[in-house]
Amino acid sequence: MRTVCQLLVLAVAVCGCSGTSKPYKTGAVSGRVTLDGKPLAGARVMFQPVHNPEAGLISGPEGYGETDADGNYSLTTVFRDPGATLGRNRVMISTKKQERPPNNPDGPIREIAPERVPSKYFTDKAPLYFDVPAEGTNAANFELKSK
Length: 147
Fold this sequence. Notes:
This protein is mainly beta. It contains 1 helix and 13 strands. It has a single domain (29-144), classed as Immunoglobulin-like (Sandwich), CATH 2.60.40.
């Protein structure tokens, strides 16, 4: 019985009582990405929350955005919330884009944009971190170096 009660409490915490509350909080995030001092256009920026045991079982969704011609970006979570999960996030940046033929979803993947960013910036060990504040920020800027 105790296990059933614990599972029920966990389900309510995850889903929320009204069905509209979220078990995580986000803050608006935007900024600029440069590579060797020049704007990095067409880069995908990903914020991945770093698990915080004190914050509970769920830390929150990842945030994604793409840079424009001037290297500027804004993030949206995978659930379409503006911004990224509050707190510490690992940041990964990549320009490589791939796709499958539109009429053949099982067809071969082809590269449509090459990688211009050094591999250290788009692995799960990327050295970039950003702390998303509750009030959000428009200064999540990253100055990447090719060497």
